[in-house]
């Protein structure tokens, strides 16, 4: 999501929807995307900003007061708010404001400043948290590797493979990182035009545990080259040294010899067997439980 600014259009108008949510589930997030798509199609639309946290803030910007009022009173928006009163919202406020002043700043040389999001250059590529502008890389990865990865993953709906879902996933990746819930590192080619691998350090738990769960995948064409070891070595070093996670847990199906070999080489130890642990490709599967303990 970009910061909206348009000093040349002054004055312009803003419609604010601020809310506290009872449920921030996937249907709510899809609803937000649909609302934004609807807003973009309306006359006089300028831009939007969206922030999620303890309180959600969805702002749309409009060229004229009439355009803003039309959006404020749009039948579909009113209908969604009505549904939300019974499903998502604890409370909300819908407001129209006139923007009289607009002062903005954007760094002209981003290389001079460190990003809030890590970017790690390895021998054969770049390990990074994707930006929404890179959603097509994720879409290509999940679609091109669909047949290869499906035996090792949960069943996916057709919507999972769409660009819109990939954009939504990236926004969630970035929000989870900022909220200290997880780190999704995608491994890109050196020129960052192709995604080669995926690694997810999820369910970060602090306090007396200081642990997370690890999941990963790799393109079929990159198997057997040591790339997964390279990707996970760099990611594990980051989560341990920068995030101070010192127990990383990973599981694999007993028949997945390649995954077993990757984890063993990284120093993961077997801790047990879990029966019917995860539902993979429509079936409950046993998993070998492992952990890398760095305490």
Automatic annotation (TrEMBL):
GO terms for cellular component: cytoplasm. PROSITE patterns: GNAT. One of its GO terms (molecular function) is protein-N-terminal-alanine acetyltransferase activity. Gene3D superfamilies: 3.30.70.100, 3.40.630.30. Residues 147-295 form the N-acetyltransferase domain. Keywords: Acyltransferase, Transferase. Belongs to the acetyltransferase family. RimJ subfamily. This is GNAT family N-acetyltransferase. It comes from Marinomonas arctica.
């Amino acid at each position: 999501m970009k910061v909206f600014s348009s000093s040349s259009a002054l004055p312009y108008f803003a419609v604010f929807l601020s809310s506290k949510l009872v449920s921030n589930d996937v249907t709510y997030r899809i609803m937000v995307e649909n609302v934004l798509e609807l807003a973009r199609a309306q006359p006089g639309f300028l831009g939007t900003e969206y922030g999620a946290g303890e309180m959600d803030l969805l702002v749309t910007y409009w060229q004229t007061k009439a355009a803003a009022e039309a959006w404020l009173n749009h039948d579909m928006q009113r209908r969604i708010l009505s549904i939300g009163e019974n499903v998502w919202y604890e409370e909300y406020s819908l407001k129209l404001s006139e923007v009289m002043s607009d002062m903005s700043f954007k760094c002209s040389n981003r290389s001079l400043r460190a990003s809030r999001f890590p970017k790690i250059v390895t021998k054969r590529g770049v390990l990074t948290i994707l930006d929404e502008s890179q959603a097509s890389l994720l879409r290509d990865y999940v679609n091109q590797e669909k047949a290869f990865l499906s035996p090792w993953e949960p069943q996916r709906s057709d919507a999972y493979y769409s660009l819109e879902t990939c954009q939504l996933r990236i926004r969630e990746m970035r929000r989870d990182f900022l909220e200290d819930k997880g780190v999704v590192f995608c491994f890109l080619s050196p020129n960052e035009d192709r995604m080669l691998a995926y690694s997810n350090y999820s369910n970060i738990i602090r306090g007396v545990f200081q642990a997370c769960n690890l999941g990963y995948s790799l393109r079929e064409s990159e198997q057997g080259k040591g790339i997964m070891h390279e990707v996970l070595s760099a990611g594990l070093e980051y989560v341990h040294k920068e995030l101070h996670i010192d127990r990383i847990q990973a599981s694999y199906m007993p028949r997945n010899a390649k995954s077993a070999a990757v984890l063993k080489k990284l120093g993961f130890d077997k801790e047990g067997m879990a029966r019917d642990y995860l539902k993979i490709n429509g079936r409950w599967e046993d998993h070998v439980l492992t952990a890398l303990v760095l305490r």
